[in-house]
Amino acid sequence: MLRVGVMVSGGGTNLQAILDAIDNGTVTNVQIAVVISNNPGAYALERARNHGIPAVCISPKEYGSREDFNKALLAGVDSYGLDLIVLAGFLVKIPEEMTRRYERRIINIHPSLIPSFCGVGYYGLKVHEAALERGVKVTGATVHYVDSGMDTGPIILQKAVEVLDGDTPEVLQRRVMEQAEWVILPKAIDMIANMALSDGC
Ligand code: GRF
Predict the structure, then answer these.
(1) Which of 10, 64, 107, 152 has the smallest number of CB atoms closer than 10 Å to its CB?
(2) Local structure of residue 194 (DSSP, 8 states)
(3) Centroid of ligand 1 to alpha carbon of 69 (angstroms)
């Protein structure tokens, strides 16, 4: 069983897609050990609790400095003995010490086809606004390993989604989630869990 921690900041629809995929057997050999949010009001925490999964908040507001927050975040993550950390809409930059310690053990979902519309400043609706402004006809989502850069780690899975005439950022965001994010994030976790097993881990 791969022990997975999911890190969230908001609504948690990607978390829900993972939980549903575990429940319906699409994702196997995975146990969600904890859900960690930086935001106490994140509905994702509620989704975790409803599923009987430990849900914890580690908020930067509770610490005097970014350094202290980073230490607390790393200590919190370490205490769960995780094999894989999944960033599912986690809006905080991962501390470098954490990317080093968990090299190839942190993955992220990004709502575009990397290397388009990614990096600093491209998060949430901004990604879809930029795609519409540029007039691309195809966008999508990417699951990638997290390294010390922003959306720069090795790509694991991508899925394309059509942009349609009249799309607003909100409409496009929803289509990218439904057709791509909720599909490839659980799929990547399943691939890693079952690859790890076949490696004898
Ligand atoms: C998703 O679009 C994800 O790609 C982005 O943040 C959003 C999170 O949505 N990084 P949710 O919290 O999973 O509903």
Answers:
(1) 64
(2) H
(3) 22
**2-25 tens-digit pLDDT:** 999 999 999 999 999 999 999 999
Q: For residue range 98-126, list pLDDT tens digits in order.
A: 999 999 999 999 999 999 999 999 999 99
Q: What is the structure's pLDDT at 114?
A: 98
DSSP letters, 94-113, are PPHHHHHHTTTSEEEEESS-
Ligand 1 pocket by C-beta < 6 Å: which residues? 8, 10-14, 44, 88-89, 109-111, 124, 177, 181
Instruction: Give residue 12 CA to ligand 1 midpoint distance, Å.
Output: 7
Atom of ligand 1 nearest to the CA of 14: 13
Tell me which DSSP letter residue 62 carries.
Answer: G
User: Within 10 A of 40 (CB to CB), how many other CB atoms are there?
Assistant: 11
